[in-house]
Input
Amino acid sequence: MREFTDQELVRREKLKKLYELGIDPFGNKYDVTDFSKDIKDKYQGLTHEELENINATVSIAGRIMFIRKMGKASFLSIKDKLGNIQVYISINDVGEEVYNLFKTADIGDIVGIKGNVMVTRTGEITIKCKEYTHLVKALKPLPEKFHGLNDVEERYRRRYLDLIMNDDARRVAFARPKIIRSIQKYLDNLGFTEVETPILGTILGGAAAKPFITHHNAQNIDMYLRIATELPLKRLLVGGMDAVYEIGRIFRNEGMDRKHNPEFTTIELYKAFSNLEGMMDLTEGIVSNAAMSLNGSYEIDFLGHHISLAPGFRRAHMVDLIKEKTGIDFFENMSFEDAKKLALEHDIEVEEHFGYGHIVNAFFEKYVEETIIEPTFVYGHPVEISPLAKKDPKDPRFTQRFELFIIGSEYANAFTELNDPIDQYNRFEAQLKERALGNEEANEMDIDFVEALEYGMPPAGGMGMGIDRLVMLLTNSETIREVILFPTMKPKD
Output
């Protein structure tokens, strides 16, 4: 049997009283015509006399966050989706019966307020209540310091309380869909079509990652939750959809940290007859436009850095960046053994499946990645780690691929897409060999995709970007858990 605190017992007694009065404790439809921030923005700065002349009537609904009862008149604070606003309620304005109903209210209750806009002697925009409507009785009291650091795990487990008590959490929650809408609008205006592709599949491909595996009972087969949307979207290019994108959930059975959650959101897009430079321009436009749409500025603060996201991001080859930091030039003709020797001299572990390109990438990750602060397109990734990108015709050890780095983190990954079915088949086979050597993140053979390429896929550019990380960047949120409403959590014991 559940045990209740003294406060909870008092609230349940008030619940009974509402029933006795013929009032539904959990409310009915209420006509909301106004929101707190809009009221403040519209009437801020007007005098008491000006507001009396205007006689503006508003109707809001929200949660009581503060009550100061003073006999026959009281003040309360109401929180709706846009913020808080003060309400003045008097027995002279609403009558004794309604005022007595109000006196049974608790912090956390949801109420409707209809009245006139006024300003107090301290200059605070306030609603003078003319009609008070009880909507929902809160049976549990709100926590006093829910936003404190000691409650960080509980904040994520009970996001509903976080949104009530933590204005910053609410700000981020509303910012995320604005960012996504800005991306959709930007791409739609460029002639892209938003599509949906399967979440369940039978072949692992499109990225280097460990999958979640599930089972389809009717067909008695194991299936993967998708680790990327790349291969289905490129099939659409074969079919004649020349510019497509998908924003959707991705699932990777890997660790969790400040930048990683096992389910997260990406955008992948593909544009026929484009290339790597076209994808750089497009990615730069998406990020810059999202910053301006959300904040009205390209300037942002994140992780202690102040940077600009204005168009004109730096573009640099991975090998050149490694040379800047270490003095080693991987453009030189050197054997795998020479590269391996350099790796060991620089405290880089060489795994069994490593080739020349893996060593180059390991140097970048160890000595360069975290040093990049300003937005930078790092291009020219080794072919061994880029099974779906076209080779660089000037040096086939490297590919026409880039990653966008900002303040030490990767935000986007893009290719001049590989559309040669013979080369693609050979790369899949190389991935299978890596898998046999212990690389669990290597792709499987997707023969249907190879056959799709044999019908002819136009030259194209493609790009994938982590939506969660972009939201972190633009809202100055330090962990991915802050920008996912319901992040993955370990069950309580």
